[in-house]
Automatic annotation (TrEMBL):
Species assigned in the record: Actinomadura alba
PANTHER family named among the record's database cross-references: DNA POLYMERASE I, DNA POLYMERASE NU
Protein name in UniProt: DNA polymerase I
Domain 3'-5' exonuclease residue range list: 311-486
DNA-directed DNA polymerase family A palm domain sequence ranges: 653-860
Domain 5'-3' exonuclease intervals: 11-271
Source organism, top-level taxon: Bacteria
GO MF annotation list: DNA-directed DNA polymerase activity
Length: 897
């Protein structure tokens, strides 16, 4: 176990009150910020696990147990039926996380205890008492102050002061200083003062100071009872009136120190935990940072990593690079390549390079010290497609190579991409983590004396060794991942789609897209004026100024001042998100609601425009970064800037698109996107002949499907009917439920359910497909796209209904969305190859969802149209054939269609 403190000189027992701490975590962390893509809330699990890691790191217990309450009544309920009666109902979002906390503890082999008829406090009291008899030191982590009665010189309570991260060490001196009585009297003080959370009312008008004074004057509660008639004033009258209540409190808040338990303190040992089990669980919970903190804190009984890497490092001098490459790289199998440097926004800088095979010496090259002869030798080797290479997350280094005039070819494995295909639910693909997971090694060098050299990147020699270790690790990891991908059926997907796409994306990043910053500056000014104007309208509607960006002030205005119906309650009050305000606008119609929604829309657009202006380089082009490793469905995302979030449904949003323009020396922009690709894939996968016929008829697809469902001629399908079926068509492709459809169409759930039934009467193949795809995924544990991209869904067999139902919806849409991602990637590769084969100078600039954007060279428009149509429509043969829509113009907005 990693440590910041010396190892305890005697056994140290750490006891945690599981429910108390989990409940605190639930309310300390915003629910909206902690949930999985399946919709499972995780704030309580995250907070509890984070606190657990911290306390294990800081306290280094030799023994450990986590105690939980049970749902059955306890002896306290039998003594007082109103015990804890005032507590609010446990939130469903919390209840669904308790079993997940159990899974975390079980995976870590940490004992957890509970017993019917008793609370966690009683189990803790029993174990602490037994531990004292065994000579063990005890630490209790709990948010329940009843535990203060257990505090002694050998028992310390760690009480959460704020959330679950700030723990206060509560010793006998701390209890006495805070409450004026020793821990042995705390229970008596609590009986007098009462405990609101347990519904144990105290003596009215009597606070901790008065209670402490009485107890100290009369040597405890027994003495106070014996002299109760001597207590003067209103407080004395109140005490005498409520004395029976005090005695009842004293009986109820006594902790039972003699609960019969199967485990005794000496048996609460931390077992050997399994890294793969933790990986699987944390993948499901989508915890990345916690995973890294956990590995830095805990160790298994046996070492997790067998060893580091033995490296013989060469540093070829001037004129020696060609010889080293010939002797140790050419013909030596796949070579791991690791680089240091910076990259992003279409360019990069190379500061270090290491090469290592599975055996033999590794080499480190400092690019700043390479002479021309060495640079030529390195360039030839890097560009040799016949020399297999392995890298980790190669696209960034490609930009750095390209900025130096170097071409990288022959990459037969990108270990980050390979891990992404093997573990698509994971959030991070850190090399050190993957090396430990697959190779059971640490990303470090073994020294010649049998010790370990930890590499922290400080100093030139450390950088050289660090990169050499990474290069060797990548070479070995690539082999292990190859075997894993073979087992998962993803080898072809890596080599024919994802790896070739790296170079295409790198080229698009380097090229970028031209922008008109004067247009953006004018648009920013215009939007700024609109923001101010909408603010004034909002102020006028309520009669005073307020901060439209402050949820707290908005709550005060809407619910306190205007008395509008309250929305869903959150930790910080009542939600004021856009959906809630839109619903309020429909039901109430107060003008300030319209102004608030409009202000948010315009302010968001201005923020987007203002962020774009400084991103243009000296040539007036913006370079986004495409991400292959983010979406589990296989879809690309983009960052810095995110070009997939630019709105197109509003006039102002379209004005942002108008700021992206054709570059100097080119004729125009061409956009090409797939028409209804998800629906065509759904038709193909389901084999529903009626749906396929609707696509192949040549008529409007939504009109034809509406005509069949509502049994009216196509010409009688009005806008409302078409919109209903359009929502149904797309909704089914995204796993939409009847409730979701009712919310989308603003119709009762029963009506939505009836609409779905009518739809399935006409398109029974869709119903059968949706049913079968979930059943198969539950059997196999994963879904597959048309190219074999898998999405692993362990929650399909979860006992938690919410997690299971969300996983079922993901099983419905993953094959469709993932297949669409596969097809646009294949299309991008085919278009790129055809552009080079035909010698066109037009170039591909962007991929945004199902759309490709091109910069058209002078005189090449017709040829490019033909090429793009041919390659995109031919990317995959569907029974509902792929159709591509195109548009051209001087701006991205003009090129829309």
């Amino acid at each position: 176990m990693a440590t910041n403190r010396p190892t305890p000189d005697k056994d140290r027992l750490l006891l945690l009150d599981g429910h108390s701490l989990a409940y605190r975590a639930f309310f300390a962390l915003p629910l909206e910020n902690f949930s999985t893509t399946t919709g499972q809330p995780t704030n309580a699990v995250y907070g509890f696990t984070s606190m657990l890691i911290n306390v294990l790191r800081d306290e280094q217990p030799t023994h450990l147990g986590v105690c939980f309450d049970r749902s059955e009544p306890t002896f306290r309920h039998e003594a007082y039926v109103e015990y804890k009666a005032g507590r609010q109902k446990t939130p469903d979002d919390f209840r669904s996380q308790v079993s997940l906390i159990f899974e975390v503890l079980d995976a870590l082999r940490i004992p957890r205890l509970s017993k019917a008829g008793f609370e966690a406090d009683d189990l803790i009291a029993t174990l602490a008492t037994q531990a004292g008899e065994l000579g063990m030191e005890t630490l209790i982590v709990t948010g329940d102050r009843d535990a203060y009665q257990l505090v002694t010189d050998g028992v310390t309570v760690l009480y959460p002061r704020k959330g679950v991260s700030d723990l206060v060490r509560t010793t006998p001196a701390v209890v006495e200083e805070k409450y004026g009585v020793p821990p042995t009297r705390y229970r008596e003080l609590a009986a007098l003062v009462g405990e609101t959370s347990d519904n144990l009312p105290g003596v009215p008008g009597v606070g901790p100071k008065t209670a402490a004074k009485w107890l100290n004057q009369h040597d405890g509660l027994d003495g106070l009872v014996a002299h109760v008639d001597e207590i003067k004033g209103k407080a004395g009258d109140s005490l005498r009136e409520h004395l029976a209540q005090v005695l009842r409190n004293h009986q109820i808040n006594k902790l039972d120190c003699e609960v019969e338990l199967e485990l005794t303190p000496d048996r609460l040992t931390i077992g050997q935990w399994d890294r793969e089990e933790i990986h699987s669980l944390f993948d499901t919970l989508q915890f990345r940072v916690l995973r890294e903190r956990l590995y830095a804190t805990l160790s298994t009984v046996e070492p997790e990593a067998d060893e580091g890497f033995e490296i013989e490092l060469a540093t070829p001098g001037p004129g020696e690079v060609a010889e080293w490459l010939e002797r140790h790289a050419r013909g030596a199998g796949r070579i791991g390549v690791a680089v240091s440097g910076t990259w992003g926004r279409g360019t990069g800088e190379l500061t270090g390079l290491a090469l290592a095979g599975l055996a033999g010496p590794a080499a480190y090259l400092d690019p700043a010290e390479l002479i021309e002869e060495d640079e030529r030798a390195l360039a030839g080797w890097l560009a040799d497609a016949g020399q297999p290479k392995a890298m980790h997350d190669a696209k960034g280094p490609m930009l750095a190579f390209a900025a130096r005039g170097l071409t990288l070819a022959g990459v037969t494995s990108d270990t980050a991409l390979a891990a992404y295909l093997a573990l698509p639910g994971q959030r991070s693909f850190d090399l050190a983590d993957l090396v430990l997971r697959y190779l059971h090694r640490e990303l470090r060098e073994e020294t010649g004396t049998g010790g370990q050299l930890t590499l922290d990147g400080s100093g030139e020699e450390e950088i050289a060794h660090d990169l050499a270790v990474r290069a060797r690790a990548v070479a070995e990891l690539a082999d292990s991942l190859d075997k894993d991908l073979e087992r998962r059926g993803a080898v072809r997907l890596l080599h024919e789609v994802e790896l070739p796409l790296v170079g295409v994306l790198a080229d698009m990043e380097r090229t970028g897209i031209a922008v008109d910053n004067d247009h953006f500056a004018a648009l920013s000014s215009s939007l700024g004026g609109q923001v101010k104007a909408v603010e004034e309208l909002a102020f006028s509607a309520v009669g005073h100024d307020f901060n439209l960006g402050s949820p707290k002030q908005i709550q005060q205005v809407l619910f306190d001042e205007l008395g509008l119906p309250k929305t869903k309650r959150t930790k910080t009050g009542y939600t004021t998100d856009s959906e809630a305000l839109t619903n309020l606008l429909v039901s109430d119609g107060h003008p300030v609601l319209e102004h608030l929604l409009r202000w948010r829309e315009v302010a968001k657009l201005k923020s987007i425009v203002d962020s774009l202006i400084p991103m243009a380089d000296d040539a007036g082009r913006i370079h986004t970064t495409f991400n292959q490793l983010v979406a589990a469905t296989g879809r690309l995302s983009s960052t810095d800037p995110n070009l997939q979030t630019i709105p197109i449904r509003t006039a102002e949003g379209r004005q942002i698109r108008a700021g992206f323009v054709v570059g100097e020396g080119f004729e125009c922009l061409l956009t090409a996107d797939y028409s209804q690709i998800e629906l065509r894939i759904m038709a193909d996968l389901s084999g529903d002949e009626a749906l396929i016929e609707a696509f192949t008829s040549g008529a409007d697809f939504h009109t034809i499907t509406a005509s069949r469902v509502f049994d009216v001629p196509p010409e009688q399908v009005d806008g409302e009917l078409r919109n209903r079926i359009k929502a149904m068509n797309y909704g089914l492709a995204y796993g939409l439920s009847a409730f979701g459809l009712s919310q989308q169409l603003r119709i009762p759930p029963d009506e939505a359910r009836q609409l779905m039934e009518e739809y399935f009467e006409q398109f029974g193949g869709i119903r059968d497909y949706l049913r079968d795809v979930v059943a198969k995924a539950r059997q196999d544990g994963y879904t597959e796209t048309i190219l074999g991209r898998r999405r692993y869904l362990p929650d399909l067999t979860s006992d938690n209904r919410q997690r299971r139902e969300m996983a079922e919806r993901m099983a419905l849409n993953a094959p469709i969305q993932g297949s669409a991602a596969d097809i646009i990637k294949v299309a991008s590769l085919n278009v790129d190859r055809s552009l080079r084969e035909r010698g066109l100078t037009s170039r591909m600039l962007l991929q945004v969802h199902d759309e490709l954007v091109f910069e058209v060279a002078e005189g090449e428009l017709d040829a490019l149209r033909e090429l793009v149509s041919e390659q995109m429509c031919g990317a995959y043969e569907l029974r509902a054939p792929l159709v591509v829509s195109m548009g051209t113009g001087r701006t991205l907005q003009d090129a829309g269609h």
